[in-house]
Specification:
The structure is a single chain. This protein has a domain of 82 residues. Helix content is 73%, strand content 0%. α2 runs antiparallel to α3. The longest helix is centred in the middle third of the chain and has 38 residues. The structure holds zinc ion (ZN). Zinc ion (ZN) binds next to α5. The site of zinc ion has 8 residues, from α5.
């Protein structure tokens, strides 16, 4: 039984657009530097320390998100390339087929469940 790669191609392209929008939103939300933002909040609030901490934490979360989004984007591009090459749905590590329900959850996944578990343990 072969995988319907066209269906996954559509899912990947949709996910790619969604991630790109998320990255664009992150940049729009924070045009200034962190220093400017902290100053603004500190100058306009009675609760300086807590507000400053919150702004810093938010920024750190955003940075993490942006990093992960970049990673997901390259994973998606790699998966689209594998569709073109006809290797989509096989593990890049061992060549075994990736379970279809795994691809449903993570269409950009490149590892079979066994290799994914090994990678997580590293
Ligand atoms: Zn594998």
């Amino acid at each position: 039984m072969s995988i319907d790669t066209e269906r996954f191609r559509v899912a990947l392209l949709e996910e790619r657009a969604r991630v790109e929008r998320a990255i664009a939103n992150l940049r729009d939300d924070h045009p200034g530097t962190l220093d400017e933002e902290v100053e603004e909040i500190a100058g306009s609030s009675d609760n300086h320390l807590a507000e400053t901490a919150t702004a810093t934490l938010d920024r750190e979360i955003d940075f993490t998100l942006e990093e992960n989004s970049g990673q997901v984007l390259s994973d998606i591009d790699a998966a689209l390339k594998r569709i073109d090459e006809g290797t989509y749905g096989t593990c890049v590590n061992c060549g075994k087929p990736i379970a279809e329900e795994r691809l449903e959850a993570y269409p950009w996944g490149s590892l079979c469940i066994d290799d994914a578990r090994l990678a997580e343990r590293r």
